[in-house]
Amino acid sequence: xxxxxxxxxSRLHGKVTISGAKNAAxxxxxATVLARDVCxxxxxxxxxxxxxxxxxxxxxxxxxxxxxxxxVEIDTxxxxxxxxxxxxxxxxxxxxxxxxxxxxxxxRADVSLPGGCNFGGVRPIDQHIKGFRALGAEVSVxxxxxxxxxxxxxxxxxxxDVVSVGATMNVMLAAVKARGVxxxxxxxxxxxxxxxANFLNSMGxxxxxxxxxxxxxxxxxxxxxxxxxxxxxxxEAGTYMVAAAATGGDVxxxxxxxxxxxxxxxxxxxxxxxxxxxxxxxxxxRTGRLxxxxxxxxxxxxxxxxxxxxxxxxxxxAEGTSIVSEGxxxxxxxxxxxxxxxxxxxxxxxxxxxxxxVERLTGAPVKALDLRAGAAMLIAGLMAxxxxxxxxxxxxxxxxxxxxxxxxxxxxxxxxxxxxxDPLREAL
Length: 428
Ligand code: EPZ
What we know:
Helix 5 (126-134) runs parallel beside helix 6, helix 8 (234-246) runs parallel beside helix 10 and helix 10 (308-315) runs parallel beside helix 12. The chain is of the alpha/beta class. The strands form 6 sheets. Strands 22-23-1-24 form a 4-stranded mixed β-sheet. A 4-stranded mixed β-sheet has the order 2-15-17-16. A 4-stranded mixed β-sheet has the order 4-5-3-14, covered by helices on one side. Strand 16 and strand 17 form a beta hairpin. It has 15 helices and 24 strands. The structure holds ligand EPZ. The site of ligand EPZ has 25 residues, from helix 1, helix 5, helix 6 and helix 12.
């Protein structure tokens, strides 16, 4: 067991390079099974979700070779049974992308229901199943396993009842191999949807409209291997941008697509930060006091829900009262109790948090309740007086590459310790 120990008070300064996008990589890795061929993926983030997906690919019979720290070669010529058992699927949500990918490749898929961040309620996959059924698959769920079979997938007009990133990508993965045309309406528009479509098109698929709410897919019989570089991670970039503003720092965030960061840039400026945009970088700095802003999370191009905990944390020390409304998940404010341990003044009523700015936070032992909540605890620790210990950091390491090294290079006082090395624990 490991934890991060953060001593607050340092203003982050310098340059940080953003890694490949987690939420694109976790769909593109399963997508490689759609070709009986070799794919080379560049700009792969070094995170535990990627490790978990590479393990699933190996268990399915793919040959996986790391060419360097961020490049992986995957040969899916020979696959064994299209089955992903619970032990392999449980560490992450994205294991469910093997449903669409294996259905497209084999006409069959048996995949355990996924794990991933728990926001305190059910994370349904009814829209995924609706889409697979519309394409002609028979779907059943027994003892936590989703079983799907199909004689032949046939294109269909599918209207999603909710805007879902996962359902849009999963159904796209199967539809690329369906006979005829599939139209996805009310599709999600996140940058990772476009990246998956671009990847699939580079394998020979015919997908148009990704990034809008109507996606048209002409099915093809065969997809081939490809070389592809994954886009930079919008949320990792946003996290460092907020950390820079929260600590009154000055950070150049490199290897980003500024267009993907517009909603975050807007809120940071309104909160009193200065943001300069370059072709593939943004610079965030702040000298004056943080100001209150209201934030509502929405599907892209709205403010991303995956930046909500980090932004709420920054606003804990803003002048005035900020209102943060969560428009995607039912229960994404559980981490607020951890912030209260550090002196934050936040009232939560359902999907709305009212944040009364305080002068300062103080260090405390806190838990990373999920991936982005964990990132928020680190930002809180960097802003706070004294020492913050963040436990359950495996959640954070699911989604942030080389986090400690990157933060230390920006001047943060952070280290990772094993509980076994912890002198306080030995003294207990
Ligand atoms: C993806 O989750 C991301 N995960 C999440 O990021 C992110 O918070 C979310 O999209 C929204 O942007 C991955 O990409 C692996 P959804 P996903 O389906 O696909 C409801 C992170 O921190 N819904 O877009 O599971 C659902 O309950 C993670 O990186 C249904 O009702 O999210 C939610 O309210 C956490 N039925 C809303 O739609 C369904 O079948 C959006 O969920 C599917 C979803």
